[in-house]
Inverse folding.
């Protein structure tokens, strides 16, 4: 890894740990893809969730996607639907598409839980 990549990672980690939602999203992405760090879906889920809880629509989408796929966490279509609904409500276009796909998979009785 180049020096500048190592420095960027250090700053992302500091900002993410300090509660900055965009940095938390970036850490989640780096961990999900293995960019500059060892790939870890479990850690990606944790960082995406921290950012998503602060209203970051991209993190909400990424968290919903990983919940739907069961990567780094147990597969949970109801929680995935809920996070994607929040993301779609903020206008994130991919969230609406995936949310609608999950909606077709869910039993109509499960929707009130989401």
């Amino acid at each position: 890894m180049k020096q500048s990549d190592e420095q960027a990672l250090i700053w992302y980690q500091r900002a993410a740990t300090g509660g900055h939602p965009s940095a938390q999203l970036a850490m989640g992405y780096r961990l999900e893809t293995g960019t500059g760090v060892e790939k870890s879906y479990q850690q990606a889920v944790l960082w995406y969730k921290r950012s998503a809880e602060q209203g970051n629509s991209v993190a909400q989408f990424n968290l919903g996607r990983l919940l739907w796929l069961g990567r780094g966490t147990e597969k949970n279509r109801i929680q995935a639907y809920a996070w994607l609904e929040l993301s779609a409500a903020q206008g994130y276009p991919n969230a609406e598409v995936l949310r609608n796909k999950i909606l077709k998979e869910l039993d109509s009785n499960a929707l009130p839980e989401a």
